[in-house]
Write a structure and sequence with these properties.
With 468 residues, this protein is of the alpha+beta class. Helix content is 55%, strand content 18%. The strands form 3 sheets. It has a 5-stranded antiparallel β-sheet, sandwiched between helices. It has a 5-stranded mixed β-sheet with strand order 7-9-10-12-11. The protein has a two-stranded antiparallel sheet with strand order 6-8. Strand 1 and strand 2 form a beta hairpin. Helix 1 runs antiparallel to helix 4 and helix 8 packs antiparallel against helix 9. The chain is rod-shaped and about 165 Å long. It starts with a helix and ends with a strand. The structure holds adenosine-5'-diphosphate. The site of adenosine-5'-diphosphate has 22 residues, from helix 8 and helix 9.
Length: 468
C-alpha cells in the first residue's frame, strides 16, 4: 500500500505527468493524421483541377472527341499507378477509368453525388470500398464556358499505406511517452526514497532519543536540507546528553552538599545523646557546630529555592535603599573566621564611604557569599583573597580577586551557565554563579569574570548607585 510522501508524489506529480504525456500523444497523433489525410486531399484536388481545365476546353456536344481525349489523358497519366482517375459524364455513366477494368457499379460515390449538387462543384469522401479498402475520393465537376456541368473527374487514392505510416508514428509517440513516464517513475522513486529513507531514519533515532538514548546519532547521507536536519538532531541529542549528565551531576553534588552538614549535625547530636550531659566545653563546641551546619544547610536550601524561582521567572526582589558596603561588611565578618581556619588571607580595606544602592538586601548578600565562597574554595592554603571597592561614574564596583587555581579559557564562557562545574572534584552544585549573575542583572548591574590558569580569578560585581 502506497502511503505518505510516496502517495502524495504519485497523486501530485506522476498523475499530472501521465495526463500530460497522454494528452501530448493524442494531440500529436491527431496532427499527424490530419496532416497526411489533408495532404492526400490536396494532391488529389490539385490533379483534378489540372485535368478539369483540359476537359473544359472540349465542347460537350462533340461526344466522340471529348470521350477519346478523356480516355487518352486517363490512360496515359503518370499518376494512374498511385491513384484511380475516373471521368463521369453528366448522366452518371463512367466514360473513362485509369484501371482499365470495367467500372465497379457497386462502389459508392457519395462525393460525386455531393459535388453534382453543390455550388462549388467539389466534394470529398473518405470511406471503405466494398473490398474493405479505405480510400479518399474527390470529385470535381468540369464546367463549360457557360458554367454548365459537362462531366466530372473523380480521383481515388488508397489510404492503406498512409494508415500504416500513421500507425507507426503513433506507435513511436506511445513508446516515447512510455519511456518518459518510465524515466519519471525511476527518477521519482529515487528522489522519494532519498527523502523517505532518511526521514524514517530520523524518526527512529528521534524515538530512541525520546526514550533517553542520548548517544543515538543519525548517519548523514546527503549534504542538503535533510542533512542539516540530521546535524541539528545529532547536536540536539548531544546537548540533551550533556544536560542529562549535568542534571545527574547536579543531583549528586546537591546530595553531597546536603549530606556533609547533616552528617556533622547528626554526629554531634548522637554524641551528646549517648554520652549524657557532656562538659561545658564539649557541649559548646557541639552546639556551635550544630548551629553552624544548620545555617549552612539553610543556606543551601535557600539557594536551591532561589534557583528554582529563577528558573520559573518567579524571583521577586524586595528592593529598598541600602548601603551596599554595610552588607558587604556583614558577609566579610562571617567569612573572616572561615578564611582564618582554612589558612587563607582575606584582605579588605574597610572604607567609611556610604554607597547607596536600590536593592534586595538578602539577595545581594547571597551574591557576595557565593563569590567570596568560590574565591576561598578555589584558593589553596596561604593564598590571598582580596576585596576592593571602586566607584566609577554612577556605578559601584566590588572586585573580588583570588590567587587560586583559575579557570581554563575554554571553561570561562560557561562558568555562569547553570549546573556547570569546571572542577568536578571540589564541592559545589554549579548554580552559585548562575544565580549571582541573575540577581545582579535584576538589579541592573553586571557580573564579569576574568581568570587565568595558575594566575587566579577576578570577579567584578558592578551595581548602579541609587540617585538621591
Ligand atoms: P560551584 O557551586 O560549583 O562553585 P559556581 O556556579 O559557583 O558553582 O561556579 C561554577 C564553576 O566556576 C565552578 O565549578 C568552578 O569550576 C568555577 N569557578 C567559580 N569561581 C571560581 C574561582 N574563584 N576560581 C576558580 N574557579 C572558579
Amino acid at each position: 500500500m502506497v502511503k505518505g510522501i510516496t502517495k502524495r508524489w504519485v497523486l501530485n506529480t506522476l498523475c499530472a505527468i501521465v495526463a500530460i504525456v497522454v494528452f501530448a500523444i493524442v494531440c500529436l497523433s491527431f496532427a499527424v493524421h490530419t496532416y497526411f489525410y489533408s495532404s492526400v486531399e490536396q494532391i488529389l484536388s490539385g490533379r483534378s483541377v489540372e485535368f478539369s481545365k483540359i476537359l473544359s476546353k472540349f465542347p460537350s456536344d462533340s461526344a466522340s472527341g471529348f470521350t477519346s481525349a478523356a480516355r487518352d489523358y486517363v490512360e496515359t497519366s503518370s499518376e494512374r499507378e498511385s491513384m484511380e482517375i475516373t471521368v463521369i459524364d453528366r448522366n452518371g455513366n463512367i466514360l473513362a477509368n485509369s484501371t482499365g477494368f470495367a467500372p465497379d457499379t457497386e462502389s459508392p460515390m457519395p462525393d460525386y453525388e455531393e459535388a453534382k449538387n453543390s455550388t462549388s462543384g467539389y466534394a470529398k469522401w473518405v470511406g471503405r470500398l466494398p473490398s474493405g479498402e479505405k480510400v479518399t475520393a474527390i470529385t470535381r465537376m468540369v464546367k463549360n464556358s457557360d458554367g454548365e456541368n459537362i462531366c466530372a473527374v473523380r480521383y481515388i487514392s488508397s489510404m492503406s499505406d498512409i494508415d500504416i505510416v500513421i500507425f507507426c508514428a503513433v506507435a513511436v509517440f506511445v513508446i516515447v511517452g512510455m519511456l518518459i513516464i518510465g524515466l519519471v517513475i525511476i527518477s521519482g522513486t529515487y528522489f522519494v526514497r532519498s527523502i523517505v529513507n532518511p526521514v524514517r531514519n530520523i524518526t527512529e533515532t528521534a524515538k530512541k532519543i525520546s526514550e533517553g538514548d542520548f548517544n543515538a546519532q543519525i548517519d548523514k547521507m546527503y549534504d542538503d536540507e535533510i542533512g542539516d536536519l540530521c546535524d541539528s538532531i545529532n547536536d540536539m541529542a548531544t546537548a540533551l546528553g550533556a544536560a542529562d549528565r549535568m542534571k545527574n551531576d547536579f543531583i549528586s553534588s546537591v546530595s553531597h552538599e546536603l549530606r556533609t552538614p547533616l552528617t556533622a549535625i547528626k554526629g554531634w547530636a548522637e554524641t551528646m545523646q549517648s554520652c549524657g550531659v557532656p562538659d561545658k566545653e564539649t557541649f559548646d563546641k557541639g552546639m556551635d557546630i550544630i548551629v553552624k551546619e544548620s545555617t549552612r544547610l539553610t543556606g543551601i536550601v535557600e539557594e536551591l529555592l532561589d534557583f528554582s524561582r529563577m528558573q520559573n521567572n518567579q524571583m521577586i526582589l524586595m528592593k529598598e535603599k541600602l548601603d551596599i558596603l554595610a552588607e558587604l561588611d556583614e558577609v566579610l565578618y562571617m567569612m573572616r573566621d572561615r578564611a582564618h581556619n582554612e589558612g587563607k588571607h582575606l584582605l579588605y580595606d574597610q572604607s567609611d564611604m556610604i554607597a547607596p544602592v536600590m536593592g534586595d538586601k538578602n539577595k545581594l548578600k547571597q551574591v557576595f557569599i557565593n563569590i567570596i565562597d568560590n574565591a576561598l574554595k578555589y584558593t589553596p592554603k596561604e593564598g590571598v583573597v582580596g576585596i576592593q571597592v571602586i566607584t566609577e561614574d554612577e556605578l559601584i564596583k566590588i572586585v573580588v580577586t583570588d590567587t587560586g587555581c583559575g579557570i581554563a579559557p575554554d571553561d570561562l564562557p560557561r562558568v555562569k551557565d547553570k549546573f556547570f562545574k569546571a572542577n568536578q572534584s571540589v564541592r559545589g552544585s554549579g548554580i552559585g554563579l548562575a544565580l549571582a549573575d541573575e540577581i545582579v542583572a535584576l538589579h541592573g548591574g553586571t557580573l564579569d569574570i576574568e581568570s587565568g590558569i595558575g594566575v587566579g580569578t577576578t570577579v567584578t560585581i558592578a551595581l548602579p548607585l541609587a540617585k538621591d
